[in-house]
Amino acid sequence: MAMASRFPDVEIPELPVPQFVLAGVAERADRPALIDGLTGETMTHGQLAAHVDRLAAALQARGLGKGDVVAVFSPNTIWYPVVFHGIAAAGCVVTPVNALYTPEEIAFQLRDSGARMLITVSPFLDRALAAVQKSPVDEVVVLDGAQGHPSLRDLLSTDAPAAQVDIDPATDLVTLPYSSGTTGLPKGVMLTHRNLVANVAQCRPLFDLHEGDERVIAVLPFFHIYGLTVLMNQGLAWGCSVVTLPRFDLEQFLRTIADQRVTRAYVAPPILVALAKHPLVDSFDLSSLRTITSGAAPLAESLAHAVETRLRRGAADGVVVSQGYGMTELSPVSHTTPETGHEPPGAGPTPKGSVGYAIPNTECRLVDPATGTDAAPGERGELWVRGPQVMAGYLNNPQATADTLDDEGWLHTGDVAVVDDEGRYTVVDRVKELIKYKGYQVAPAELEAVLLGHPEISDAAVIGVKDEDSGEELPKAFVVRTPGSSIGAADVQAFVAERVAPHKKIRLVEFIDAVPKSAAGKILRKDLKARA
Q1: Which burial class, exposed, middle or buried, applies to 77 when counting CB atoms under 10 A from its CB (0-12, 13-18, 19+)?
Q2: CATH number of the domain that 523 lies in?
Q3: How does pLDDT run across 111-154, given as a tens digit for each residue?
Q4: Cα separations in angstroms, 134 against 72, 105, 183
Q5: 266 occurs within a structural domain
């Protein structure tokens, strides 16, 4: 049964992404749009629009046209939005490359996407050139300059006429991020201008914006769809100042929030673990923060409460920690927690463990993975989503597209969820990651939340490990001790056993220095499975 959002539909402007995001520039031309969190360098909304115009003109003058793919291999800087929107305004398609990729991984994406140009930064140039040796492109642009390569300054100084291109938002692609989807090797996710415009427009009614006073810290990478849509495009379209950091360093992150008086943080759970447990947090004034929204991986209710309690520090209101849900194939948001005063009519507060409501213009189903029929009310099922934010498909991969996106437009997320009577969803695990033990399904995310409640555990991950004798999958915990802790495996197992049903007990424990995670904060379970 299709369940509609509890919010009324919103109008989705029929505009290309740059035109939509920069629509309000005239009213805020002199206000900061982008601030470098390390140096304080600032770009106004007016300057951003002017730079986007010049870059689009330069790309067209270099022979790039509608549908051509440009790869961007860079950390977060105040110039990343210029590059993204300049490429998009020229009618080209941006394929953002993970800043941690090896030359082989970069070369695969260049080849698979058909990229004609690669834009990078000088610290990444060695890897970029090694990749281009394996998968050539027409030109390599180095944003901050390098001998033998054009720089961003070179492109922005063009006197070419403004780009002229006819973009159909409904069908023309604007970005091609790579995702493993519900399973398998990375695939190019085809997202249209309408997909990205819709997602920003859909989220707006759920947020309580303080016009002209919002500062968003952008530490999650712009090359990930979470950073690209929620931090960069949403922040700029809503007139916020987006404060960039090239990578997550806890001290830099805390200092930037304090110095720049950041009001909003969009993060992944590992950052919240640090905010809840690291002693360094107490050294900085984080009182400007009003909201922290978590995404990319499940957020434990106890962790959300721990962060709120620690950051309140006697203040009456303090910071509100909530979470949302999405995936690359959803541009990325399908669910989020509304801010106070923006809930559906008659709705109460959203529980911390929930990802909130389906956003406007979005339908959902919960489907029993075993039978393919809709789950009974109150029962778990695979979450299916339909709406204007759903991808066009996977590039050059009709089989993977058909496996994920059905003929009726439903995207099969691969995530298991439940919905309550108020229409609030809770994601409990991945279909592919559920551990089967003695016929029971064990959710790794649930056990990880329990483990993080131990004061001597700073991080943890759980996977299923096959027992050769019984053939069962045994829940195994990889645990990172807090500094100075001597907690043992038996202590870990006893702690969990006191808090879960017998079939969910941790059967194996391994202590490690750090849990492997993606740049967006997702646990890399395949790395742990290889280790196990």
Answers
A1: buried
A2: 3.30.300.30
A3: 999 999 999 999 999 999 999 999 999 999 999 999 999 999 99
A4: 17, 10, 26
A5: no
